[in-house]
Design a protein that fits this description.
Pnp Oxidase, Chain A, alpha+beta, Split_barrel_FMN-bd, globular
Length: about 160
């Protein structure tokens, strides 16, 4: 499996991600977001309120970071965020659970979509057989007194475009 495919495959394991934006004063701001959709190319879609701080931050600086973490899988993405006002796409992605934040439902005028187009990503996968392989390599490295060799099945940097 190619590194790009592996990265997207790992992203499928997550239903929540940390979206990190740049604030007006140059700080980083992260917040958890429900993943509304993930495309085969690795584009991520989120639903948000158009009046939120993150939207204002993305208008000024569209560069964002996404992190996803589980007990043995980790993904980091950097890319460009764009705001998308598309009622058909909102209808396609709509989840009734979002009514907590949008009591008027999918036709709530405050809903907008965030599409993140990844430019670069990294992953660490220590799940399943990869985790066993890592433990063996880590044990060997410990005994030999040097870091384990990098294995793209477990860890890789990927250029997405």
């Amino acid at each position: 499996m190619e590194s790009h495919e592996k990265l997207v495959s790992l992203m499928e394991h997550f239903d929540t991600a940390m979206l990190v934006t740049n604030t007006v004063d140059g700080k980083l701001e992260g917040r958890p977001m429900a993943v509304a959709d993930l495309t085969d190319s690795g584009e991520l879609w989120f639903v948000t309120d158009r009046h939120s701080g993150k939207v204002a931050e993305m208008v000024l600086d569209s560069e964002v970071a996404i992190t996803m973490q589980g007990s043995s899988r980790f993904v980091s993405i950097t890319g460009k965020a764009s705001l998308v006002d598309d009622p058909a796409k909102i209808n396609e992605l709509w989840s009734e659970a979002w009514k907590v934040w949008f009591p008027k439902g999918k036709n709530d005028p405050s809903i907008t979509l965030i599409k993140v187009t990844p430019e670069r990503g990294e992953y660490w996968d220590n799940s399943g057989f990869s985790g066993i392989q890592y433990m063996i390599k880590a044990g060997k490295a410990y005994i030999q007194g040097k870091p384990p060799e990098k294995d793209e099945a477990m860890n890789a940097s990927v250029t997405m475009q």
